[in-house]
Design a protein that fits this description.
Chain lengths: 406, 406
């Protein structure tokens, strides 16, 4: 917990009365983290020493059926790159910065357990704004059973930066990598794709048209004192896009699905959809040296996303393939176990969509355009699918989504 | 490894010909991390999956005498807060961002093992500058036997931010906390204090007087294309302050000392001196509910620091007590074992200075001014010490150093 060299050791912020506040690092950490998590949660995750010493101390949990291995991942959110004051409230930033890491652990088939949180805070932020960031972070931690065990707080010259590290465990030898996909396997995803990108599309448009400022009063979003509040959820509800906005702000990683799938032993590759279905499919294809064929008719489509795409004259397919930040899982599974896995997840109330097949290399990803027209997205269930033999096949580009290029 | 929302997925940088370069995240990670560490190093630390999947997978190492517990710490360095283009070259930033975390593991008595590296890179940086940052990071990793197992790379609007997480291990129940100091214990440090602060003092003065720009050509410091190079070590050598500058740029955490001390079982509290001797002593005093008395005559003094302090008419004591970033260890040990511990460390070529005593609370830190005059710092070994009974005692403030207040 070192805090400064060129600046002072304290964190300087502006309070609600627009006055400068100097918090020393320990005061600020206490203010934001004290008594936020139950002793049970910390004990359950084997925490011996939590926040407040040089390092956290945790006991290695015992695997039921044998040894466990550790999983470790870090993910960083940077103001203006991953969010701004209009697109996300502070609590959303806290939630999502942890959720993105929990998703990385799920993408290996593991159990998330411990997190460390590094927050670099600009001077213009209110202490209460950072408190709200931690509200979201702790809410996500409770949702996924993660113990927050430590962190670092520093000043930042201009932009908020949140770097979260998550440690998890997996039964020894059972981590699911990207490289195991085999010809004949079935491709699956554990939830709809493209919703987060559509939500962001709406948020940026709403912010540009001044909806954030015009919206009815709500707890001030945007941590900086005096900055415009974030676009309120009420405005998204009124526009029929609340589910899309929440998909962007509060992603829900597929941890339960990951654990059920990992236990079957038939999943041959797994990725979380952080950078878009196309990009993640390409990673599996290249790592495994195989080709993935995705069927357009099978891609899980959100009705509200399709409706919004129609309104703004955009193809939902662009968001579905290239949108990213959905934090569902994309993977491949032995063909003989695909339906049984789907049934097991359904019994647990979890979706699993079988969206394509694996064939022998060279590495590539293609889309089988087996819908008769783009319009039929809105009448999906009654759409006529093109006969298999006739359906055209198109290569899917190895790229992510560029929000500025729209 | 998610990379963007509002920006693009690629990392945009400026190359040496001042042209914009777009690197996708995987290209950039490969460019900076491929083949940088031996397979032996990774195997030795039980790495099953390293950089390149959603999360790293590592085997829990086996303790020789029983179960191990895990230690986890994160530390972040922010451009303009912890360094700038004049004070540190990119490789120094890489070294120090890992060293600060290694020091946190040492401060619990543990063995550092694995690191995750999150780098947020401003557009103005050259790819070669980030490569040099990783040079320093990997050099530090080799020095301390740490396997780099993963990370995240994002864009940053203006300032470089490096957040490093280190995982280590400690024999179960043996982690040394801050709260165990007992009346009668002896206070120790494992190296000189104040050198890093003195080095930074010189660096800021040199930068202000234009020594960075006037210095002979060297590999460009400062990652931003076109930014002034960092103050060269040759200039520090010419000024007789190279050791001070290196103490600031390349701190050497006391891992070996920590392990030898932890094995004795007589160390009752331990901290690393990241925020200054005074601040760390206060942490132990408050956590343990005791009072620490430090003897001025016993504080380990660097000759080059004392000489530089004399030249700039500063009291070396200010740097020694409040300077910070020394990354030596401050702790307390049972009085009966202090000399034997010192002898064991000496036999291993490691310093240990017995600098004071613990007495019953209330929590506090005082300095016994047992040197006859401030001048005697320069004639330390021949100085006349005030007789014990006469030596005045002064409370030591609970604060860090403010470089701007000088």
């Amino acid at each position: 917990m070192a805090c400064r060299v060129l600046g002072t050791c304290s964190i300087q912020l502006i309070d609600s009365r627009k006055e400068a506040v100097d918090l020393d690092e320990f005061e600020s950490i206490r203010l934001w983290t004290d008594s936020r998590q139950s002793a049970e949660r910390q004990r359950e995750q084997g925490v011996i020493v939590g926040i407040g010493d040089d390092a956290a101390v945790v006991e290695a949990p015992q695997g039921e059926g044998g040894t466990l291995q550790w999983l470790m991942a870090v993910d960083t959110m940077v103001e203006t790159v991953h969010f701004n004051a209009a697109t996300m409230a502070e609590a959303d930033v806290g939630w999502k910065s942890l959720a993105a890491n929990v998703s990385d652990i799920a993408a290996m088939g593991g159990v998330p357990r411990h997190a460390l949180v590094s927050v670099s805070v600009p001077r213009a932020w209110e202490p209460a704004g950072i408190r709200r960031l931690y509200d979201g972070l702790y809410a996500c931690a409770e949702q996924y059973g993660v113990a927050i065990v430590g962190g670092d707080t520093t000043s930042s010259p201009l932009h908020l930066v949140v770097a979260v590290t998550v440690m998890g465990t997996i039964e020894a030898g059972k981590a699911i990598r990207r490289a195991g996909a085999q010809p004949g396997d079935v491709v699956f995803v554990t939830g709809p794709v493209g919703m987060a990108a559509a939500g962001l599309h709406w948020l940026l448009a709403a912010a540009a048209s001044g909806q954030a400022a015009a919206a009815p009063a709500q707890p001030a979003g945007g941590g900086a004192a005096g900055s415009p509040p974030c676009v309120p959820l009420a405005a998204a509800e009124a526009a029929g896009v609340a589910a899309l906005v929440q998909a962007h702000r509060r992603p829900a990683p597929s941890v339960r699905a990951a654990r059920l799938l990992a236990a079957r032993g038939t999943v041959t590759s797994l990725n979380d959809v952080s950078d878009g279905l196309a990009s993640e499919a390409w990673e599996i294809a290249e790592a495994s040296g195989i080709s993935l064929s995705l069927r357009e008719s099978r891609l899980p489509l959100s009705g509200s996303m399709a409706a919004y795409a129609h309104r703004v004259h955009t193809s939902p397919l662009e968001w579905m393939l290239y949108g990213g930040e959905d934090y569902v899982l994309l993977g491949t599974i032995a063909a003989g176990d695909a339906q049984a896995a789907k049934a097991e997840l359904a019994a647990a109330g979890l979706p699993m969509y079988l969206i394509g097949e694996v064939s022998a290399g060279p590495a590539g990803v293609e889309l089988i355009r087996d819908l008769t027209s783009a319009d039929s997205y809105n009448q999906r269930h009654s759409a006529q699918y093109a006969a298999e033999a006739e359906a055209p096949r198109e290569p899917i580009a190895k790229r992510g989504y560029n929000h500025f290029a729209q």
